[in-house]
């Protein structure tokens, strides 16, 4: 038995999520086929406007574009998480065994107990994936084992466009503009995917270095749950690049939090840049873009008290802040040095903004452009 088999069965996690997540809005077969066909068409239509607006081109290097249902999204992400995390989890488990045995290693526990542990972890992971699968409109899956790919979640697009009263053809293209920008970010800058995966792996490995200490920090931090669940005051502004990560905040050391803040600054850049591009393409391509932005922005914080609480626990409030903070940075830098000057950000790891620079775009311009 492999060491990681006692931790998570990723295939079972994907299957559990597929079983748990509701299928989406009721649609006839013809409506589903039309939706899928239009999303594929919109993904193609988004390529030229994004390239023209961003000054970046991905070509084939950005990976495939796939239209999926909620179950398909969950299974795809379970496979990606497994490819990323199995080596990290395996190394952490081996360190733990070596520590217990003075470096000599210990035999695997009883097979029945290992199977139960694996099944419980798969069910818990599947529950989380099921929740996320009902929320995500699209995703550039940079962690996919065979290279990046763009996923468009058809039932979620249909649900949201109906909920906000959007013109379907406009909304579908608008979503594709955002996701195509992510495909371009990584396709036009091949170093970025490897760097991003490396940063995530290093952070996970560090957090799993001492599981006992992480558990103690979690227990000690449970008293902060009321604060974590408490919604911010209307209009409250969290510092850029340092939005709450939800439950993960409870198990991090100060050093780990600093590293996560640095990674969050880059994620803010990616999300904010995609938001700016999708909006700046403008009404010549998406006639109702202003209406869509206003209505969609109003729903990003969650649709009800339970939904908002879960989002805060999972750190999804941080995701919302990333769009806002990153867009602010992109617009400020572009106003100073234009799109070509902004695109210097993609030159390599050394030109990515820090959390402090995300809050102070002029500091990034001074450092990179002199």
How would you sum up this structure in a few lines?
The chain is mainly alpha-helical. It has helices at residues 10-20, 29-45, 47-54, 70-100, 111-133, 154-163, 168-187, 191-207, 211-221, 225-229, 254-280, 289-299, 305-314, 316-342, 355-359, 361-369; strands at residues 65-68, 138-141, 149-153. The longest helix is centred in the N-terminal third of the chain and has 31 residues, at 70-100.
What key phrases describe this protein's structure?
single chain; 370 residues; mainly alpha; Lysin; disordered N terminus; metallopeptidase activity; hydrolase; Zinicin_2_N
Note down, in words, how this protein is organized.
The radius of gyration is 21 Å and the shape is globular. The chain contains 16 helices and three strands. It folds into two domains: 1-209, Zincin-like metallopeptidase, N-terminal domain (Lysin, Up-down Bundle), CATH 1.20.150; 211-370, no CATH class. Residues 1-5, 103-110, 215-244 and 308-316 have low confidence and may be disordered. The chain is mainly α and 370 residues long. One of its GO terms (molecular function) is metallopeptidase activity. InterPro entries: CHP03883_F420-assoc, Zinicin_2, Zinicin_2_N.
């Amino acid at each position: 038995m492999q060491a990681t088999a006692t931790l998570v069965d990723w295939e079972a996690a994907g299957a559990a999520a597929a079983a748990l997540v509701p299928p989406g809005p009721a649609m006839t077969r013809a409506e589903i086929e039309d939706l899928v066909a239009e999303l594929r068409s919109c993904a193609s239509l988004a390529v030229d406007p994004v390239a023209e607006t961003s000054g970046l081109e991905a070509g084939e290097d950005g990976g495939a574009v796939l239209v999926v249902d909620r179950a398909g999204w969950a299974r795809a992400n379970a496979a990606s998480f497994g490819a990323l995390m199995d080596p990290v989890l395996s190394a952490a488990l081996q360190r733990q065994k070596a520590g217990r045995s003075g470096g000599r290693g210990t035999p695997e526990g009883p097979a029945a107990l290992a199977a139960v542990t694996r099944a419980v972890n798969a069910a818990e992971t599947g529950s989380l994936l099921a929740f996320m699968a009902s929320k995500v409109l699209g995703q550039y899956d940079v962690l996919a084992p065979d290279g990046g790919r763009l996923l468009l979640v058809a039932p979620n697009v249909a649900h949201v466009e109906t909920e906000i009263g959007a013109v379907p053809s406009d909304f579908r293209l608008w979503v594709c503009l955002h996701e195509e920008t992510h495909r371009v970010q990584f396709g036009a800058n091949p170093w970025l995917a490897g760097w991003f995966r490396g940063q995530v792996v290093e952070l996970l490995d560090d957090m799993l270095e001492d599981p006992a200490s992480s558990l103690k920090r979690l227990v000690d931090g449970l008293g902060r749950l009321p604060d974590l669940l408490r919604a911010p005051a209307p209009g409250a502004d969290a510092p850029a690049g340092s939005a709450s990560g939800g439950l993960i905040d409870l198990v991090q050391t100060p050093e780990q939090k600093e590293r996560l803040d640095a990674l969050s600054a880059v994620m803010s850049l990616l999300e904010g840049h995609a938001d700016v591009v999708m909006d700046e393409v403008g009404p010549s391509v998406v006639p109702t873009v202003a209406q869509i932005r206003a209505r969609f922005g109003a729903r990003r914080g969650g649709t009800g008290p339970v939904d908002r609480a879960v989002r805060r626990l999972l750190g999804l409030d941080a995701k919302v802040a990333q769009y806002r903070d990153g867009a602010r940075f992109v617009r400020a830098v572009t106003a100073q040095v234009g799109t070509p000057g902004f695109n210097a950000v993609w030159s390599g790891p050394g030109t990515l903004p820090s959390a402090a620079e995300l809050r102070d775009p002029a500091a990034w311009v001074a450092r990179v452009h002199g």
